């Protein structure tokens, strides 16, 4: 942020004001004057009105939609990035090349009685290119449930998936094989690094975990770690967990849901739109959850950034 007024406060953010006398401190040393500059600017931004924030964002040709806290975070991150890039250019090769967004649809009953076993009936993947910030490709196949082959009326109404669709579909092991082949064709885990991303923990820790047991196959290694975007969103924009539902996240970012809610593919595309906006706002989405010995675990934000392995079909188990 080279310069700008904060309206009623009559404060100007200028290079001269914030540069300090010495900007040659060591890399990643928080005593570096650049961090003081960033803190001062953050204080100015905190005092700006929503209209002032939008005006400043427009000046930098940044997205102006979203609630006030989102706008503040966007502007702070832009300024921080500019300052740190002046100090030391960022190596753009260290982040995932792609993010695979997955949002399963599963069999369900009204009220979801605790003894009900959910089976995956739609397996979508949305391939997000982290360099271009565009959805590059999508995969979608329906799955034939085996334990409860007849869908409830509630499930049909919620997901839009009809009995006829699942009756004609392949069973889960074949669909998983098709997903893996699709990912291999796109050279994920070989030529390109990637991570899985979901909206919450359940897709992997519950639905995929249960489905693999039903289908007598081991849990696939490529899905053992993932980005839970709800956690990332809450931590990045500093909002409580109850504000991280898909429709609320979209609304806070100034976006509308596009498509049919509870269509796995449409849900995945909308989750990808949130991920794109977060990346644009300066968030480094990274793996924050994993499966270990059949249990859901948290991954520390200080853990090294590692891509998922090349996808392989898991072995069958008794």
Automatic annotation (TrEMBL):
For this entry, list what GO says about its biological process.
Answer: regulatory ncRNA-mediated gene silencing; rRNA processing
Q: What class of enzyme is it?
A: hydrolase
- Known EC number: 3.1.13.1
- Compartment(s) of residence: Cytoplasm; Nucleus, Nucleolus
One GO MF term on file is:
metal ion binding
What main location does UniProt list? cytoplasm
Question: What's any one GO cellular component for it?
Answer: cytoplasm
Keyword check for Ribonucleoprotein: no
Its needed co-factors are: Mg(2+)
Describe the reaction catalysed, as an equation.
Answer: Exonucleolytic cleavage in the 3'- to 5'-direction to yield nucleoside 5'-phosphates
Domain named SAP: which ranges?
45-79
- What domain of life does the UniProt record list for this protein's source? Eukaryota
Q: Which Pfam families match?
A: RNase_T, SAP
- Keyword line: Cytoplasm, Exonuclease, Hydrolase, Magnesium, Metal-binding, Nuclease, Nucleus, Phosphoprotein, RNA-binding, RNA-mediated gene silencing, rRNA processing
InterPro entries, per database record: 3-5_Exoribonuclease, ERI-1_3'hExo-like, Ribonucl_H, RNaseH-like_sf, RNaseH_sf, SAP_dom, SAP_dom_sf
Q: What is this protein called?
A: 3'-5' exoribonuclease 1
